[in-house]
Amino acid sequence: MSEWKEVFDRNRVIPPHSQTARQAQVSSHGLKLHFKQIDGLHVKQSEEQHALRCQLRVTLYDSGHQHFFGRTWKSGSHSVSGTAGQIGRVPFNEVVYFHTSLCLSSVVAVVELVFLSTRPDGSQNAVGSGFGLLQLFTGHVDTIISQGEGRLSLFNGTPRALLHPALKDPLQMNAMLSVMEGCQLLYKIQPHPTLTPIMHLLPPNILVSGHDSIPGVAPPVDGTADALRKPRLLKSFSCVLEGVRVALFPSVEVFESDLLQLLNRDCQNTNRGAEGRSVVVQERRLLVGVHNGWGWVEKPQVLVLEREAVGSRAAGARGAGAGDSIRQTSMEKINDRLSLRGSVALKMMRHSAFSIVFQLQYVFSCPMAGDGQMTSTAVHRAAFMQCVCWCVWSLFSNPEGPSDNVCLKLQSGALPNPWGVMVYSSNTQQVNSGKCVIKFKFSSGVETSANVVSPVSPRETSPTKKLVSASQDENILVPTASTLQSPRGPTLSLSQLAATSRYPTMSHTVGSPWQQQLPSLLSPSLMASAHQLSHVERPGAGSIAHLELSVQEREGERSEEEGEIQELTFNPVHAPVITLGTHAAGSSRSTSRRSLAQLFSSGFPQILDQQNQVAEVLDPSEPVNFDPQREEADPLQANTLILQFLAFTRVPQAGVHSNWPNSVHFTFQLYRFPPVTTERLKLLDPERSSRIDVKSPSDSPCVLYLINKDGSLSSGCPGLQLQYRVDPLFLKPGERAWFLRYLALHSLQIDVWDSESLLLIGSAAVELKHMLRQGRAAVQVCHELEVITTEYQQDASFAIGHDSKHRAFPAINVYTTVKGILHLRLGNVGCRVSSSQSSLALPPACSHVVQPSDATQGLAGGVVPALTVLRLNASNARRARRLPETDSELARLLQSTMREVGGAMLHKQDESEEVRQRKMDRMAAVRQHEEQRVTPPFQDNANLTKHRAERMQHSRDLHLIEAYRERCKAQEITNMLSQAITTKHTLYATLGTAEFFEFVLKNPLNVPQTITIECDDPELSVIVKSEEWRYFKELTKTRTPLEHEMFHQESTLTPQVYLRPKESLHIPFKYQSFLCGHIHPSQDTKGLMISKSPQMAQKHLSNTIQAKSIKVQFRGEDGKPLAICQVNVEPTPHVVDQTFRFYHPELTFLKKAIRLPAAWDSTADGSTTLHVRCSDPNVICHATNLSPGEPQDVYLKVPGCPSPQIRKFFITIFTDLWLASPAQIWQVYVHYLQRMDLSCVCGTLSWHSLVVHGTQAIRRVKCYTSHPLELQVDPGEVFALPAQGVQDVRVGVKALRPGSRFFYLNVLDVDTRQLVGSWLLCITCRQPVISKAFEIKVPVDGGKGSNKKISFTNPYSTSRVFTLSTDHPDLLMFKEEQFQIMGGEIYTIGLRFAPTQNPGTEEILIFINDQQDKNEDTYCVRVQYR
User: What pTM was computed for the model?
Assistant: First the structure.
């Protein structure tokens, strides 16, 4: 069965009432119905009704004629949230789309609430619980649609009651309908004009969902699985049918003769015509149209066929190029056929359901006479039409593409057809139906449309065949223009206008295929059920789900070999990672007062102000009123930010022990301070009072204690306190306002790590707005933050149920899990700033206009102090120094004692003060000893000779120095002159932020000059665009003149500017750096930073970009520099708004999409301008500009690294056009792991092996897993990893639930706390074979649970030991988890079901394993909580 046939049979609808259809408007209106939830649903507490899932069914209803029409739409099944006997709520959150031209107040939507249950035989039982009438149209001209939100009251009973004759309009006022008390449906109606482009693909009055497959509508690219929210069309192309011929069996003459005989007999029986052959054939028509299974894409074309014989010359001429002739039978010498003059032009789309439908229609006429008598004069004849046969041709049914010559079999009889009419059938037709054929030649030309996107299915990505046919005798070219203007056949005769019958008349006028509609006039049939598709979000990190194909039609004169290959454009669809935004979500959990009393009695350090008074405590739930003027007027200009990590509350997790984690540490980055990794902290239960002899509850907070390097606990105060000093010494001028804005709007993201395994537990975010003091001396606030992580789990049943030929990706559920509660206290203590600190605030305030210094200063002579030289301009003064001190090469060439002196002075600075003092003391002792000795007389001659030699060496050294000075004189003078025209400017640059300044360039000559601006660093550039220059001037409030078209670039890329004599000009510059040093840090806790000193942040400032000195030279026409600007770049740390961590297999590309919050979707003017830059040049990142309201995604493509390295980089996001300042800076960590795929069966322990490679030295390592209860390792203790060797580690997997999950395994050096290896284990778990199934009922709100027993028989003849486990340990406990029974004996397993508060149904598996933990039997217990 073809896909068109499947779609057509599945989407048959009931037409509206004939009288209502006459009132239809010219245009159709699109509507969108959003059914949110049902409130006030009463859940009955009875044994018979145990339906716990609900469904909505919507059908259009004509209340004026009591007529249902269209098709019933069915929602998915949803569970009821509520207990038996209580008021429940059903969240639906489903959207329905449709369009209609019957905008009448009598047309309503009947919404029925249905309870679904399962019968004992497995079939589904649907019981109606109530229905409501949703008013769609107002009946007014100005507001046709009843748009807006509302609540719909439901009536008892089923919609079948609406067909009762006693129910008259208006239905809501009828006393026979009783309202369900308190039960209401929350809905929203709004017009949906975006359906207009696809109305020709979707017939009117059909209710569909966004996930219904409509041929011709492109799949969504926004990841929402709703294709009708903003529908897009597939690409269309034109095709031509030529040489259309219809051959009837046994011949046209015999076929028509039999047909007329039957019609005349019918007329005689009904007294409609006179005796004899009164009915004649007036015309033979062929209806050709494109159908997508739902409806007509455009109105079918009505074409006239002509009868001709094969033996005639005309027929032979036309038949030569059209194909083989029909064979002659032995009974006839000449066979005839029906042919079409001209060609048929159609528009198609690349979808397997798009097909061309043909209908052979005959127009008959019979005389109208009373009493069967005919007069001799002309009589009036009545014309009527009859469908004789029809067929469908699917272009894409053949994988190799459509053939050139097509031959189709015509079918007849009582079969459903797109026209919904009766089709002629006879005995001859039934026997020889396969011999009536239609033949034609098919040709196609592919055309492109700029505003239409065409996703191609996987089956269509094969090389496309050239559809333009070319036979040996003729070459048929079908240009686009001629195709659209080709005639659709000869004009019909006047019989069509005179025909008055019960069949509709098809218009043959040429119209736009996107605007004309064909009403669905189908015969009444049973309403087909809505086809529901299961659309699950597919994660895909890196998978491309849609390929947008854009291929243009080649010109006729160019051959296929000469055509250029065009690029295929595509949009990658990823599972976007949602950003946390600037506001953190509050915790939904609250700690009991008893636990809080125990927690704060542990002795945490208090936050005190300068007067030793306890800081004012703020409520985190209260809003903060931020007043910038009050902050500026605060006399305490310095702030000491305090972070206290107090405690951590464990949350029970599946797969881990109850005491996990045992120790933690935190990583975060506050403002532009360096990133912090805290020391390890131990989790200990708070001290309990001796009078309370009750075990602490499992959800009580555990106090954090600092762990020393030797593993012992610190004897100081519990918790961890970090301080940050923010004063004028730290802040730049004008930065205080930005710092206060950071506290008011930003959140601090804290990553929580397991210190033992170095596995990430989760992340928490806390708002910093409560740290604003607002004139108070000190403030403090306590937070309870949820530590959240993202987990992935695949539903195995979805992957199995989908056929592999559709290439469906496995469905992976992405959800967040709360791993714990972090108790954090924040504080801010105000401090006064001394006048000396205010005066020494660095960096100094600088203007954005750089003026060259022309001031000249002289020296009075004499000794120049060092402080005086520092105050002078470097271009005017230089302190004299010895030549050996300035040039090391000259010092090595000197032969006199000056060499030693110079060498000593050169290396004197490298010696420490202690060594230098020891040498001086030793030299003084030697000189004192030499003075005490008497020089002998015979040594005078030796001293004289030595003195002469020294004088000769001095003379040679002086000549050498003189030659050196002559050689270096020109270079030194050039350097001095360059320094005289050099102006220095210091920039304090931050990653991604553009630093703007203007250099005042003056032409010192009396002639005009064309100045060339040269720069040796690409990060410093000249602003040549006047729009960009104006933007930065307004941003920095620089009041200097602006000129348009000031620069010109001819042969070189360096800008040039023209200056008149003695003219000064402002040259705009911009420095911006997106690069910073990228290292791959190891995943360890070595060098953990902790400080209780307020000066901690100032001692460890981290510069993410490199300090550099850039020279900009302004050269004249002769190539000599006229001015030099030396820009010294001093890097400053940047603010990190959010941190992302991704775990990915090593040496593979990571492809990810990060979705921005809703506030970032568009700018103030409604246009979306988003620019993205990355600090790592090897990482590819970009953002696609979308229309306003569309979610914005940032796409990443990160190259791989070996495990266990980490790649760290920054992403800067800009919303302005000129990328002046980043709106957000993200810090991204990519952890690379070794991947290993494992397969197992639920409840069975299976062992696998992996190899750990040793490093250069022997190490003591230990293996840690993310789920110790489901993932075991052997050896599990510390073992020695040999140097340059390998170690085999066994991994035991015992997963409790089917599907695909991701586990992590770390091999850690226990001495250095460094990672040796890290693995990503992809576990695929299959469902075990169920041995027995049970069903029990457990009451809800009992508080005591329920005890049950089941029996187990030992199938072996010997005694065996068995162990019990379950996939829901939180719901089921065993009386004995291990038992031993003799062979053949029966053992009773005691079950304890935990109490629950919510009704529902749960399937619990019980695994019975042997001593090797191999599964023997699996029991399934279906528990109904009622």
Answer: 0.56
